[in-house]
Amino acid sequence: SQCFESQPGPASAWIRQGELQARETECKPFDRGCLQQALQTIRGLTREEPEIFEPETKKLCAEAGVALSLVREMKKAPWNGATKWLSSQKAMILICLRGKSEDKFWFSFFHEAGHVLHDRTKDLLINDGSSDDPREERANRFAAEFLISSRYDKEIRACRSRDEIVRLADRLGISPGIVAGRYQHLTKKWQFFKDLIRTFQWKS
Q1: CB–CB of 187/158 below 8 Å?
Q2: Pairing relation of β-strands 90-97 and 66-72?
Q3: Which one of 24, 48, 58, 180 is most buried, counting C-beta atoms within 10 A?
Q4: Tens digits of per-residue pLDDT, 104-160?
Q5: pTM for the whole thing?
Q6: Partners of 72 in the beta sheet?
Q7: How far apart are CA 146 and CA 39, in angstroms?
Q8: How far apart (Å, rounded) are the C-alpha atoms in residues 113 and 169?
Q9: Cβ(181)–Cβ(153) below 8 Å
Q10: What is the mean pLDDT of residues 41-59?
Q11: How far apart (Å, rounded) are the C-alpha atoms in residues 130 and 149?
Q12: CA pair distance 3, 6, nearest whole angstrom
């Protein structure tokens, strides 16, 4: 990972926090098919509040052999997420909660899940938002398509009201904030439908 090579201290501390959480997470042996099914269920959980989706997502991942670690913001550790295999039968998905809006949070999660499904290697993969590595490009495509198929992009671009975004989200069975985030990404109109996108915060 270029991130690790350029900033080994912050990266090590950040990854270590994720590993400590992951090692406390009891997981069944990794099962690719089980994870694929779990991701379908988790996609629907995007409509729920954190107190519902967080424990359920962790449970579903653990049943498929994946420990989900959520780590608070750390200085000099601005990365979105990371994937690491802790053993041949247990993977870790690490998400940094740096004031995450829901569209970015879920994109980061499914991006890392894409790595678990397609890049089962000993490499430590840190997502810093770049796409220089073909594995990162593939994980980005996986996350985008899994959340909302690109065949809906034209319809999303054509949305002109908050109600249209919400109705489309209902049809797709996904959070309106994710549809609003896709609209912003497609149109570059970053202020449009901003009120639909929740921001997740740590409880004090």
Answers
A1: no
A2: parallel
A3: 180
A4: 999 999 999 999 999 877 777 877 666 677 888 999 999 999 999 999 999 999 999
A5: 0.92
A6: 97
A7: 9
A8: 22
A9: no
A10: 97
A11: 22
A12: 5
